[in-house]
């Protein structure tokens, strides 16, 4: 059905169930389909050239516009909070307040750095960020078949939009909800617009007032792509879900987190830097038989 599901990186706890969902998605067809995806480490790569790829926050914190002291403080925060974010032994409820604390402190530090709106394109160009292999086919297939792509990100919206734009795949079918910067009249970052989106509140609570899913109420088939347990709630705002296929990228601490990912995601991709499996599934769904 989908040859890519035989790839070495693929782990599926219930193959029959996953196959049934994929078949249902195909039966419903592209007019019923929408895609909901995380961005950092899901559409973008986790490793590139033998080292960790930057997230949209890292792109800013590692850039030349950040002072030496600012960079050190941001690194210290990362080393303290990141192990908490991915700790399989803590519940999302335990992590929530700590994530709010981490994101708030990062945003406060970034606001102190005198970041100019006009510098963002260059910062992204210099960052070494990479989208996953096969990204062009992924974005182009969705656009070509008028399938809406909702990117729900706890990263920095201005930065991730620029990444997609520089890759020449920012098509009209894309809608982004993320943490956006607010610039003053001189184009200098003065704060981040609310509400704050972190790893563990990617759900309806931050989508109040956005009628996006309401407008797509006939699109009852969903492909969800994520890389954390927090991404599993991204489709909670969809009014009528008939079929949902959850694809999870397990990038880090694979052994200790595999069990939880297999329980939660229909398909788990272990240390896979490509969109090959997602593209294969999409090709199967969109190909008329």
Describe what is shown at a glance.
The protein has helices at about 15-30, 55-60, 70-85, 90-110, 120-125, 135-145, 155-165, 210-215, 255-265, 275-285, and strands at about 10, 35, 45-50, 50, 150-155, 175-180, 180-185, 190, 220-225, 245-250, 265-270.
For this entry, give a set of tags.
10 helices, 38% helix, single chain, 7-stranded mixed beta sheet, globular, two-stranded antiparallel sheet, alpha/beta, 289 residues
Explain how this protein is built.
With 289 residues, this protein is α/β, with parallel strands linked by helices. The chain contains 10 helices and 11 strands. The protein has helices spanning 15-28, 56-61, 68-85, 92-111, 120-125, 135-144, 157-166, 212-215, 254-264, 276-286; strands at 10-11, 33-37, 47-48, 51-52, 149-156, 174-179, 181-183, 189-192, 221-226, 243-250, 267-270. It has a 7-stranded mixed sheet with strand order 1-11-10-9-2-5-6, with helices on both faces. A two-stranded antiparallel sheet has the order 3-4. Strands 7-8 form a two-stranded antiparallel ribbon. Strand 7 and strand 8 (189-192) form a beta hairpin. Helix 6 (135-144) packs parallel to helix 10 (276-286). The mean pLDDT is 96.
């Amino acid at each position: 059905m989908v040859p890519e599901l035989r790839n070495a990186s693929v782990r599926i706890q219930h193959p029959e169930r996953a196959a049934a969902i994929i078949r249902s998605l195909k039966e419903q067809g592209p007019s019923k389909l929408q895609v909901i995806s995380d961005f950092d480490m899901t559409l973008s790569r986790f490793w590139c050239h033998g080292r960790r790829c930057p997230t949209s926050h890292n792109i800013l914190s590692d850039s030349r516009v950040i002072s030496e002291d600012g960079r050190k403080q941001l690194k210290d925060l990362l080393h303290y909070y990141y192990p908490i974010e991915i700790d399989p032994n803590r519940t999302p409820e335990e992590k929530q307040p700590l994530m709010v604390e981490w994101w708030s402190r990062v945003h406060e530090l970034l606001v102190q750095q005198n970041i100019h709106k006009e510098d963002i394109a260059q910062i992204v160009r210099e960052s070494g960020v990479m989208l996953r292999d096969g990204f062009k086919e992924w974005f182009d297939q969705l656009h070509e078949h008028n399938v809406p792509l909702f990117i729900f990100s706890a990263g920095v919206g201005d930065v991730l939009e620029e990444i997609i734009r520089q890759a020449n795949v920012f098509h009209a079918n894309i809608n982004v909800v993320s943490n956006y910067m607010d610039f003053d009249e001189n184009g200098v970052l003065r704060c981040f617009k609310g509400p704050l989106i972190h790893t563990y509140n990617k759900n309806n609570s931050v989508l109040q007032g956005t009628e996006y899913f309401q407008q797509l109420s006939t699109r009852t088939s969903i492909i969800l792509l994520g890389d954390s347990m927090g991404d599993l709630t991204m489709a909670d705002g969809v009014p009528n879900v008939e079929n949902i296929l959850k694809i999870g990228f397990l990038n880090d601490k694979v052994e200790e987190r595999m069990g939880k990912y297999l329980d939660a995601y229909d398909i788990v991709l272990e240390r896979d830097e490509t969109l090959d499996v997602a593209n294969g599934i999409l090709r199967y769904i969109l190909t008329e038989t």
